[in-house]
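Following the same procedure, sequence and fold were stored together, as reproduced here:

>
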Amino acid sequence: MAAFDVIVLGAGTAGESIAKNVAQGGRTVALVESGRVGGECPYVACMPSKSLLRSASVRHLATKAVELGAATSPALADDPAAAFARAAARRDNIAHDRDDSKTAADVEKQGVTLLRGKGRVVADGVVAVGGARYGFTDLVVATGSSPVRPPIEGLDTVPTWTSDEALSSGEYPESLLILGGGPIGCELAQVYARFGVDVTLIESAPRLVVKEEPTITSVLAAVLRDDGIELRLEAEVTRAEAISGRARLHLADETTLDGDRVLVVTGRTPNVDDLGLEVLGIESEATDLATDETGRVHGHEHLWAAGDVTGAAPYTHAANYQARVVTTNLLGGSVTMDNRAMPRAIYTDPPVASVGIDAASALDQGIETVTASFDLSETARSGSEGERRGRLVLSADASRRVLVGAAAAGPGADEWIGEAVLAIRAGIPVSVLTDVVHPFPTFSEAYEPALRDLAHQLEARNVPGPGAGAARFGMVGLGRMGEALALQAVEKGIEVVGYDPQKDPDPTSGILPADSIASLVEQLPAPRIVFVSVPQGDPTEQVVQGVGEVMGPGDVIVEGGNAHWQDSVRRFGELAQRGIHFLDCGTSGGVAGARHGACFMVGGTDEAFSIVEPILDALATEEGVLHVGPTGAGHFVKLVHNMIEFGMVQSIGEGVELLNSSKYELDLASLFHNWSNGSVIRGWLVELMEQGFKDYGDLSRVQPCVEDTGEQVWGVQFAMDHQVPIPMLSQAVWGFYQSRDRTQEWEKTVSVLRHLYGGHPLQQV
């Protein structure tokens, strides 16, 4: 049995791309396809439809020659059926006459083994194609989708087309009934209408393309009506019957519609049936193959999916994006998908384009928005082009002050929607977008007044944003330090969204609750700032990864624990690949400092530090913030700080040991109070020890074991590696280990001090 590193089921947009690129990356790949290599897009979908749309657009433009000053008499006088035949011939040429031989040859030239036939999983790690079996390590399912045929009585008795069939046919119907007012239905309705076909479009919803912004789809409806298309909205077809070789559709309102053909474009369904996926544990009734952000099917390490079969974004550009992610991960990389800014387009004339979510969808997701719009007729370009139909609608998150959605209808909208795609993907603040200059005269100038309107609304609502007097950041980890910092921030007018899987914020604390890392990040303004305050080691690793997965370019993660500085350097590099900033922030001052004014030692880039500096200044004691150097420097400096701290605490503990060994009956609380006033060794640790004797008497009830977090050994190891003698500091480190099996006064003293300044557990008899 032949075996491959990767077998790809389906040679459409996603499958072909994955197979070729993975093969070029050095893994063995087999590509299984029973139809055309390249899928539907180049042969019976995207390319042929855009070819016809272009022909129809030019034909329509010719009718405006007199109006636009290009002719003195109408330019068109030909037979529309003959013109359509010419357009169909051009379409077929662009679609390579639906011949995939060149594409298939190119795939094999890239080192891919092409297997013609239906692929089916027959055992774990085994796919059967025809009578042969092939082994695999990774399986990619990219089998696309198929048209949905609605269960209408008699529909199978009348002449019908799917979109694939219409885009392969040269037939010119005198009249066409289109079932479905989605993107494909609207596009093909315009094509046939502009070539003189009597077109009726039937949609059961109250408007076209019902998932898109209502005012934009109303522009589209007006365009189609101007082309002579009859729109029957909120219309339910109850049955169909054949009348003299033609179709008659009966509607619920008891009216009928007659046409030469019925074009059925009521949706598509992922192709998951008869693939044998139940062998791999996929439920037989599954309707799609939903994936995680890496492209893996949920719960499966070596099963991947891309394209329409995922049930996500049914667009060729989405399939290409998913293919890039899956390819990278199959080749040993580690990247994730971010679908917040997946553009959508309807290629009518003028086109409709959108990205993100509209205000209604945002509300369903718990996002409060502000919305602004602008009519393209107000742009100078509208007058010169002679096209006054069009509109731009923008929606912004009222909390984060960034765009979450944009929708447009108008000339070139499918191109200039890219500005909104980038803004949403990168989380660019509205305040920055308002300063963008557009060339004059262009339709893209519509962004400027709409964005200024958004900015004005946000300002009127007094929503805080980056650089404002009031800010908002996230805190993951509400333990001793994290909660204290959050409470201090709230008291100083800074909003804090807090999350800790072990506890919810006190409802009276003012800390805004989040039920997950994702929901915490969603509540933050751009650039989003998240502090991580969890124990070093696995907790820090998991939280930083989790936060990084839901943040985007320009956002900042501040890791405020006692992590190893080399781990911080690694995390910085991993996050930088996604454009996310990372700061390693040593935090000192104990719980009291976190609550009333801490000391921060920060490592990272100047850009990241400048974003977070105002918050750190607010939370620090006077002159308590220092940008100590590049990534890793913050945690390295904090480690050395901690070792000095251990040495000082050890010295105090050994001093108490000496004092208690004397013949004098000393009041140690009074003695440390005395030392706190003018002595050479006065300081916070001496003051804390005074308090310790007041709280715990002669320490007889205190257990000698000193609680520690373990990172002190890193400093000793560094000193050994670099041959730096640190006898005093290393002795303090050994003291922690001694405390675990000895009983001396200095150990009790150290334990009390670490409890008082750091909140470390204190064991008592």
Summary: The longest helix spans residues 633-660.
